Structures are given as C-alpha cells and as structure tokens.
Amino acid sequence: MAPTKKVPQVPETVLKRRKQRADARTKAAQHKVVTAAKNKEKKTQYFKRAEKYVQEYRNAQKEGLRLKREAEAKGDFYVPAEHKVAFVVRIRGINQLHPKPRKALQILRLRQINNGVFVKLNKATLPLLRIIEPYVAWGYPNNKTIHDLLYKRGYAKVDGNRVPITDNTIVEQSLDSGPTQEI
C-alpha cells in the first residue's frame, strides 16, 4: 500500500470567507465594467452638450454682430439684450439701517454680511436693488464665475442632508433627469 498524502484541513469559516471574498471580487469587477461604460456614455453626452453650447454661443455672437452692422448701415444704434440674472452680495452690516432697505435685504435673503444670492432681474427686483445699493455689491455672472462659486461654496439638499457640491454626480442624483444635468 502506498502512503497517502494527508490533505490539510481548513476550517469551514475560512472556506466561507474565501468564497465570499471571491464573490465580492467578481461583483466588484462586474460593477466596475458597468460603471466604466456608463461614465464613457456620460462623457460623450457632456462633450456633445458642450459642443452644442459653444455652437449656440457662437451663433448668438454672430447674430449680435450682424444686427449691430445692420443698424450701423441704416444709421441706427443697436442695443443688445439686457442681462436676466444678477448675483448680489451683502457687504454692510445692520447698524443704523433704515427700515425700508432692511426689509428689502430680508426679501432678497441677504440677512448677514457676505451672504450672496442670484436674483432674476425684472420690474420687481430692480427697484429693490436700487434701495439696497449702498449695502450690497452686485453684478452679472458668467458661466465660469457661477461654476467656480458652486464648486467652492455650493451645497445641495440630498435626502434632507446638506451636502457640498463636489462633482456632477451629486447634481445628477438630486435632479434626476431634468434640464440641468451638469455644472
């Protein structure tokens, strides 16, 4: 009779743990492949959307230039469209403040120094801005300033929690599929 090799015995818990780790590794690999495909698709969508925005911006610039030249040829003046949104920041405190500007600041949610809000410019908000002009600084934002501001100071409510906006995934998850899908 040939001597038999003794098979090392491994506890059942160790075997279970090995199996669980192997399953977890395969699931993670599958998940990685799926998310990579989704991210690639999102990237192409972002790129296409950005191209579309660039094209719209160029067309708007060309149209403005065309209208300006047309007006000059006729001897008229071309007045470009006014801004629709302003960003307002409070720069002065509450000491010796008249009740009217105090109420206007409350209406615009500018209760503390360095609070900032985006304000839609219309017939109702322009008089408010004139009333509070000595207490605020305001101007017209562009895409870059909005982008920088949201990434530096922006927060979103996700499931009742205040979460800082660090990337587009937070925006996508909270807005689902709306018109704004990226910053």
From TrEMBL:
GO MF, one example: RNA binding
Transmembrane feature ranges: none
The keyword Ribonucleoprotein belongs to this UniProt entry's keyword annotation: yes
CDD domains: Ribosomal_L7_archeal_euk (cd01657)
Pfam families, per the entry: Ribosomal_L30 (PF00327), Ribosomal_L30_N (PF08079)
Key word Ligase present: no
Record-linked PROSITE patterns: RIBOSOMAL_L30
Record GO biological process: maturation of LSU-rRNA from tricistronic rRNA transcript (SSU-rRNA, 5.8S rRNA, LSU-rRNA)
Domain Large ribosomal subunit protein uL30 N-terminal eukaryotes, residue spans: 10-81
Cellular component GO terms held in the UniProt record: cytosolic large ribosomal subunit
Residue ranges annotated for the Large ribosomal subunit protein uL30-like ferredoxin-like fold domain, each copy included: 86-136
Region (Disordered) location: 1-37
Alphabetically ordered keywords of this record: Coiled coil, Ribonucleoprotein, Ribosomal protein
Coiled-coil parts of chain: 43-70
InterPro entries assigned to the protein according to its UniProt record, in alphabetical order: Ribo_uL30_ferredoxin-like_sf, Ribosomal_uL30, Ribosomal_uL30_CS, Ribosomal_uL30_euk_arc, Ribosomal_uL30_ferredoxin-like, Ribosomal_uL30_N_euk
PANTHER family associated with the record: 60S RIBOSOMAL PROTEIN L7, LARGE RIBOSOMAL SUBUNIT PROTEIN UL30
Similarity section: Belongs to the universal ribosomal protein uL30 family.
Protein name stated in the entry: Ribosomal protein L30 ferredoxin-like fold domain-containing protein
Organism per entry: Caenorhabditis latens
Highest classification ranks of the organism: Eukaryota, Metazoa, Ecdysozoa, Nematoda, Chromadorea
